Amino acid sequence: MSDKIDLKNLTLPALELFLKGKGKERFRATQIFKWIFQHDAHSFDEMTNISKDLRLDLSETACISNLEPEAVEEGNDGTRKYLFNLGDGNGVESVLIPIEGRNTLCISSQAGCAMGCEFCLTGTYKLTRNLTTAEIINQIMAVERDLVRNPPALPANVPVIGDDLDDGDDSEDGQAASAAGIRNIVMMGMGEPLHNLDNVIPAIQIMIDGNGLQFSNRRVTVSTCGLVPEMARLGREIPNVNLAVSLNATTDELRDRIMPVNRRYPIRELLKACKAFPLPGRRKVTFEYVMLGGINDTLADAKRLLRLISDIPNKVNLIPFNEHEGCDFKAPTKAAIDTFHKYLIDHNVTVITRDSRGGDISAACGQLKGKLEKA
After folding, report:
1. Cα 1 to Cα 6: distance, rounded to the nearest angstrom
2. Is 192 an active-site residue?
């Protein structure tokens, strides 16, 4: 790309500083910010309440980036998978999941991933690079555009297990995000979000800015495999977003094997960081638990999990493993899932067992990318 500054990389305060360097008033930043993130302006010529001189100046020194999906697949259950070409040989994926008319968008933060979790397909691509703030935001804006052009129709017979991101009343969420079609943002796509905080934090600030994408912080969830120092930084800089932690094992021995990050930050240290994370009100830490058949899906695992998280405000997402080529792990049996789920429910844990969504369209992160690369 050119040396021009991509304005989609800038939060509103950063845009104010950029324009101050041009001798422009502070309110101009708000005008431009709204044009970019609320009106989806692709060029400065569209900004009709900005002077021609400023528009010309901006066109010479700045740009507004954009992403359009290279491929889109839609499943029978309404799940929609997007592959984005970043223009440098890298591709990332986003997944739109409609649940009872509430659209949750799962977005990526890196091209590839350095964490090396044994069961994760994205990890087999290794880390190529971090996504910029603009590339993170552009996934959301591209999907919103697609929803306007092609509204999804969720079949009436799709089973709904639950919306694990809903924490109650919607009265405070009368914002543009819902009107645009996307209700929840989850950073659980390709990459480890906390490994790219320098770009992820500004992206979240743009998401929740009232002059930006206008999402309620209650509707933004950041997932991590357990980078403890970065969890503390996220809590300091954006304390009101939701935290999801991929736990996936109840002993250090197993977690060391399937999640190498545990060798640096073992379970006790990770749970201490979860307990310290500043969640407002009645919100809880979500513990993601990928169930691997015959590995971590026993009743004994359920009992250990309960002991580990009992002193942390918690809810649990049980995720039956989605089998993919090149991985020897197997999906758990229905009996194992039901037993695990029932034990936690019986002990007053809020549990969501994720139904398999988008199985017919390569919906696990990395599957669509891999399929197109083979083609």
Report:
1. 10
2. no
